[in-house]
UniProtKB/TrEMBL annotation, chains A, B, C:
Protein's name in the database: MaoC family dehydratase
Any one Gene Ontology molecular-function term assigned to this protein's record: lyase activity
SUPFAM superfamilies in the cross-refs: Thioesterase/thiol ester dehydrase-isomerase
Gene3D superfamilies named in the record: Hotdog Thioesterase
Species name: Roseovarius faecimaris
InterPro entries: HotDog_dom_sf (IPR029069), MC_hydratase (IPR048274), MCH/BMMD (IPR052342), Thiol_ester_hydratase_Rv0216 (IPR016790)
UniProt xrefs under PANTHER family: BETA-METHYLMALYL-COA DEHYDRATASE, MONOAMINE OXIDASE-RELATED
Domain of life: Bacteria
Length: 343, 343, 343
């Protein structure tokens, strides 16, 4: 019996099945420090226990995107080892903050399959949930990927295409228990802009750029125990280049967005996301945002802002797609998320 | 209203004003581990809780220079985003050790301004203080930088040049509460040399060298939430090179100085410092020290030693300035500090 | 008096002497997070406090190989600063897990010396022990290295060659107190294979590869406070290359072996090891294992498996030595160890 994990192929997924992913992970101050070393992370709520307490939380949680990476990384050996492309995200929600000392594990429920017409691959939809040690769901999101078939001759399964929401409704966002922005300290947070200061349609060029090194993206990707060969082994792709984990781009863009969105403290919902183009060491990543929507929340002083976050390598800000409707070649990421912000 | 921070220009500083810097930071064992990964840090007091307890402290504090970086990093968006040069330091003192769990924030009081004769820039002097969550000052130091004017036509402010001490008097050094070197373990510390074994004027070549990589200096600089573009973005300077944060050189030189100064455990005072030449990835940094002075302290077994610490990239040790009185091109740093050492 | 440490030379070692190494180290969650960032570490017992508790331990210890590095790193300034080669290991045992908050120090007893026939160097054998803050031995192992003589004219000491066991007997392995694999969760661990599923002589290709960067191996080596110049300074060797610390290869190979040996959770014994060839940044490391032996242990559900772990840079798996009996040039490491695994 072969002992190593060859990963799952398209025909290994059955709608309704729940996959229990391996390697639970306890997080500590170490993960927080590394997140600050790997990314220009400055949102005050994730940097200071005192600031977080001033916002009604018991202390500073692990950055929401870092928590997402922990949950996501566990799914890679079961979902994306034989994936040809990570196609999209939907219905993502952060349900509980993750604190130092928490232990996270993940499961994925298969919610859809559809074989491609070429018979060589298919699309698999999963709903992934991250749990803490009290079996509380901390994060859930849907994701779909194109996965190779083991054998092109296997008959196609019945297509099941899940009906996923285009956007998480603001009423469905879960506010961390106790969150209160009534006494929010804008000086310590770094910017004066409230939710009310942003207009729907407004765009923000986040100005700063980071040129990425191989050592950095590999350390980040390993930290989340993402094991896909293409990120680590120069021999795994014909061009000899290591592909940067899409989540590295998400973290870099989100932390760069501090400059202009310092008060978009908490990521609460993930409406959608596209990894539009690949990204390699040596590229300089910049980011811009567009305000898509705003909403009220029941928590004191807490508003919600829906943002498009775009990561680029070159080009001018605010460019997204060409006349053909396709992403421009310098656009790497187009993410649609909800953040919580002082009203 | 533009949402991103353009940084302050020379005309934005008023003598007497106190700037409250953003993004407080809680430190943990993660910052300590990263400091040990990024630098050859081996001073026993910052490595071992047991050793620190043997010296009368409650546990091992964050390395003093790391604590300095945390305080300094917060000042960058307000002080040096538009700085042309970081000109000097004076009157630096470490007033309280920083422990895991402490939350640090910084303020800077503007204590001097002087426009340059070209009308395009000026020198700004600030006294920066780092506070912990109990509002105790943990570090204070003066720093001056040359800052661009927004508009050369703005009239020059009245020049105020602060009268800064050339050296912190040994009686002004603050000894951490409880510090006692009476039972100091020289074997575990790594060297037998007491304060009394060093002579004023003595020079020490620290022998070891480190060739620096881009990923390392960027991780270090981000860890302190220093956001100056020139350290991260190859597109931010005409030569396409990322300038290494001067503090990276300070940490590298100080930790290299373990070899010969292993018992200069605690940094207590910063008399002055010059970042003499820029530093880039690929350079190999070495260090040498000169004993400038020695003093007694009231704490049992604790002496003070005043050291010049010089970081170089090439050249011979103990060379500093040329016949023209200027720093030699391979000298990167000339730092003047007080350390606490067993008598 | 010269203040810097020139390291010991062959004539400085006396059989029977115990060297107390400097710079004790307290570990925290930071070291664990960095280990996960620097290596593809996924063994569940070192990743999750909850998983470790399910196996009868009070929490997740520091990875055994990381604990080994902490102990080993302290010996470098006294043992291998003037070493020409690290020749071998024997009689290694992990006696107590290391937990966050523990402080580790090391001693080495000189157990053998033998001058080489060229008169310029000799072999030194030491038995190194790592202690925690309760003076309990956490790790012990023998190691021998070829060390330069200071003066070729010094007469040779009487040769003492220790009689070291070829293999640690399974009865001598120390099982961590409380360890119980009766309720082991194979799903969370990542693979279904029990000790009984492996056959003696079976070989496993661990499939994955990692191309290593300078920044990564330097950060890892510094984290263990290993200060040998050859790892850091491009000027320290005629070829201008930084030699990668042999322990970096051990950690990389051991963590890569997760894929096929996910349940070989705990490293309990080190029978031997050879750093067969040097290793540089840019090399892609892969690993394969061979099952050498299996044994029972008195702990509930806990078996022992003896493994050969081979790290390579190129070549086909399962190749080891050429017809001349020498290691093939692409073999970097040949390690022989005992691991604890569910029966």
């Amino acid at each position: 019996m072969a002992k190593t994990n060859p990963g799952r192929f398209f025909e290994d997924y059955t709608v309704g099945e729940t996959i229990h992913h391996a390697v639970p992970r306890t997080v500590s101050g170490g993960e927080r420090a590394l997140y600050h070393a790997l990314y220009p992370a400055r949102h005050a709520l994730y940097s200071s226990d005192e600031f977080a307490r001033g916002c009604g939380l018991p202390g500073s949680p692990l950055d929401d995107i870092a928590a997402f990476h922990v949950v996501f990384g566990k799914t890679v050996p079961d979902i994306s080892l034989n994936a040809l492309a990570n196609l999209g995200y939907a219905e993502g929600r952060w349900l509980k903050p993750v604190y130092a000392g928490d232990t996270i594990r993940s499961t994925s429920e298969v919610i859809g399959v559809k074989q491609n017409s070429n018979g060589k691959s298919g699309v698999v939809w999963v709903r992934t949930r991250g749990f803490n040690q009290r079996d509380e769901v901390v994060i859930e999101y849907c994701r779909w990927a194109m996965v190779r078939k083991r054998d092109p001759e296997t008959p196609a399964p019945e297509a099941v295409i899940p009906d996923l929401a285009k956007v998480v409704g603001p009423a469905e966002l879960v506010i961390p228990e106790g969150l209160d922005f009534s006494n929010y300290d804008f000086t310590l947070a770094g910017e004066p802009h409230r939710c009310g200061d942003y207009e729907i349609g407004e765009t923000i060029d986040h100005v700063d750029g980071v040129t990425v090194e191989e050592a950095e993206h590999m350390m980040a990707t390993r930290l989340w125990q993402n094991t896909a060969k293409v990120h680590f082994d120069t021999g795994s792709r014909p061009d000899g280049q290591r592909l940067i984990y899409g989540g590295h781009v998400i973290s870099m863009a989100r932390t760069l967005s501090f400059n202009g969105l310092a008060n978009a403290q908490i990521v609460a919902g993930l409406n959608g996301g596209t990894h539009a183009n690949p990204y390699y060491a040596g590229d300089t990543i910049k980011a811009w945002s567009e305000v898509l929507d705003k909403a009220e929340t029941p928590a004191p002083g807490v508003g919600a802002i829906r943002l498009r976050l775009v990561a680029t390598k070159g080009g001018a800000p605010f460019e997204l797609k060409g006349e053909d409707g396709k992403y421009l070649p310098h656009v790497m990421l187009d993410l649609d998320y909800w953040a919580l912000m002082p009203v």
